[in-house]
Amino acid sequence: MQDSTIYLGKSADISLQYKDNSIVFRFSAINLRGSRNIQYQYKLEGYDKDWQKGFDVRHVRYSALPAGNFIFKVKASMDGINWVPSSNEVKVIIVPPLWQRWWFIGAAIAFFTGLIYWIISSRNRKIDEQREEIEQEQAISYFTSSLSEQQTEENILWDVAKNCIGRLHFEDCVIYLLDEENDILVQKAAHGPKSPKEFEISRPIGIEIGKGIVGSVALRGKAEIINDTTKDALLYCR
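^ that's the sequence the OP posted. Answer follows.
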């Protein structure tokens, strides 16, 4: 912005952009007996803490003013005792730059808060994934080593349900075996509410091949993930 000169005969407001935050005030007092011995005091309220003094000083420069509202005042005296304030004042407004405006600060805080949250969440998710991988590897390792120690089919099934599945932190697990003579799936081992006691299944049931979710999966030989069994449409496989 080019330098501008404004003549003020009364109180006025001046608004400046932050990049144009330098201003020069020129002032004078009129005395019919001469103006050489006139003393001045001036103050930019909001910037100067005290009145500034100058003998026969008729201009003052303020450079690099911060954003905010200021009021320039001046008074004159012939003897340094009795001071006459100027009949007008100048209000100076320095418009805050973009990075000092409330909406920009709020947006920046929200952005960095979201970024930090995303970084922490990503880190925690990665840690959880690594922990799950380790637990899965431990469960597989336990399963392979425990097979050689079990002597009967029943012990193997219960070991898988109670120990291997338990190590994976599953809440519930039921293992079925196919009764080929009757063509039904029979519950043989369980982990969770279905097995309140060791090596015991509460109210064991048999499921026909093709009936219900378990029966349809057994018939097709393909795993299925059911997020909500109450909403599953595949109750019978035809």
